[in-house]
Write a structure and sequence with these properties.
The chain has 277 residues and is an alpha/beta fold. The protein is 28% helix and 32% strand. The chain has three domains: 88 residues, Translation factors (Elongation Factor Tu (Ef-tu), domain 3, Beta Barrel); 109 residues, Nucleotide-binding domain of ferredoxin-NADP reductase (FNR) module (Rossmann fold, 3-Layer(aba) Sandwich); 69 residues, no CATH class. The longest helix is centred in the middle third of the chain and has 14 residues.
């Protein structure tokens, strides 16, 4: 059992849970994730470790409530327990050793970028971050990233930072030069757009993929993605890959696989069950 020690709302549908998991906190590295099951018999979901405190034995999980399982998870409170937290899983981020890194986060993907930026800063690498959201209340981890270096905030409506998409600011930074590597995490269209900006410039671009994932060990095959024309399993060979090699069309298509089932489950939760029995 893993006790929730603190809970904080980061945006209208994103919640941070600091959970007791001492063994994971001691060995986790940037880019890795855990598989969480809130109660016996519940769905297993992958969550990135957004931060950790080895001394306190805690890890930070950032949950976007978009379906039945994630809503149940964020409904838990301080003192409640999560039955299973398995990890750390996945390969750690390949960190730049020197030079300048640009970290790009869109929406909840900013929580994934944070541990990468933090580790880069601690190793002496110069870090700039571009993060975005629909409006000010949807921007997360801005203060934490400012401790790592320069931060440019972009919002669709201009309520925080500059108005526009993160790709607009990324393009300007790339044109100014001096960027040695880009780490981009967020919605598939955003990661694809960033990769297309960096491709002609030859700037290495690492993206973190979020395909359907069940066991986190490569056994289920749900997380397979196409990278450079080869099938990869994101849970054991990723979740980070060369953004210039990822087949984003296939990834986007596979992410839609269970949308109809999810819609029906949500309808049942609202008392409007559409599933024929």
């Amino acid at each position: 059992m893993h006790t929730i020690l603190s809970k904080k709302s980061l945006s209208p549908n994103v919640t941070r849970l600091d959970v007791r998991a001492p063994r994971i906190a001691q060995i986790r590295r940037p880019g890795q994730f855990v598989i969480v099951r809130s109660q016996k018999g519940h769905e297993r979901i992958p969550l990135t470790i957004a931060d950790s405190d080895a001394a306190c034995g805690t890890i930070a999980l950032v949950v976007q409530a978009v379906g039945k399982t994630t809503r149940e998870l964020v409904a838990l409170g301080v003192g409640d327990v999560i039955r299973d937290v398995s990890g750390p899983l996945g390969n750690p981020t390949e960190l730049l050793e020197s030079g300048r890194a640009l970290c790009v986060g869109g929406g909840v993907g900013t929580a994934v970028v944070h541990p990468i930026a933090k580790a880069l800063r601690e190793s002496g690498v110069s870090v700039s971050s571009v993060i975005g959201g629909r409006a000010k209340e949807w921007v997360i981890f801005a203060d934490e990233l400012r401790r790592c270096g320069e931060v440019v905030v972009c919002t669709d409506d201009g309520s925080d930072g500059r108005r526009g998409f993160v790709t607009d600011a990324v393009r300007e930074m790339l044109e100014a030069g001096g960027v040695d590597i880009v780490y981009a995490v967020g919605p598939v269209p955003m990661m694809r757009a960033v990769a297309e900006l960096t491709r002609p410039l030859g700037v290495r671009t690492i993206v973190s993929l979020n395909p359907v994932m069940v066991d986190g060990t490569g056994m289920c095959g749900g997380c397979r993605v196409d990278v450079g024309g080869e099938m990869k399993f994101a849970c054991v060979e990723g979740p980070e890959f060369d953004g210039h090699q990822v087949d984003f069309d296939l990834l986007a298509d596979r992410l839609k696989t269970y949308h109809e089932f999810e819609r029906r489950v949500d309808a049942c939760a609202d008392g409007k069950c559409l599933i024929r029995r």
